[in-house]
Amino acid sequence: MSFENNKSFWEEFIQLYQENPCLWDIKCKDYRNKQKKNAAYENLINKSKEMFPDANKKFVIKKISSLRSSFRRQIRRINSSKRSGVGTEDVPEPTLWYFDLLSFLMDQEESRAAVSSIEGNNLTNHRPHCQKPQGGQQTFFNAYCFSE
């Protein structure tokens, strides 16, 4: 059963995941609270059982991992393209239909700036200034990639 065939289910699943920051926000005070995390997982298990009757915690963790891995891959693809110095028209659009739904994870997925061991040489990730695309719907992708 693919993600595309059940968009409304997965939209609700992602929304429920977002409503439980103890599962994804490392800055959340409950992130290390096993009881709260188990209760949040139980909510996601119950939601999953609507579509997958045999769903359990392992199933939910695998689905979350799959969603996040695909999201990270898209971010890497976009960032790699931007670092290569391509023009705005060549920055790849995300192919995941749920990319914007997972935008709340962006703070969790961005890599930290690298620090060089050579004195006075700090390496940082930066977004080159791009022109904002003309027309079209304002999405998280456009706001992230084409912010001024």
UniProtKB/TrEMBL annotation:
Coiled coil: none annotated. Residues 12-110 form the MADF domain. InterPro entries: MADF-dom. PROSITE patterns: MADF (PS51029). This is MADF domain-containing protein.
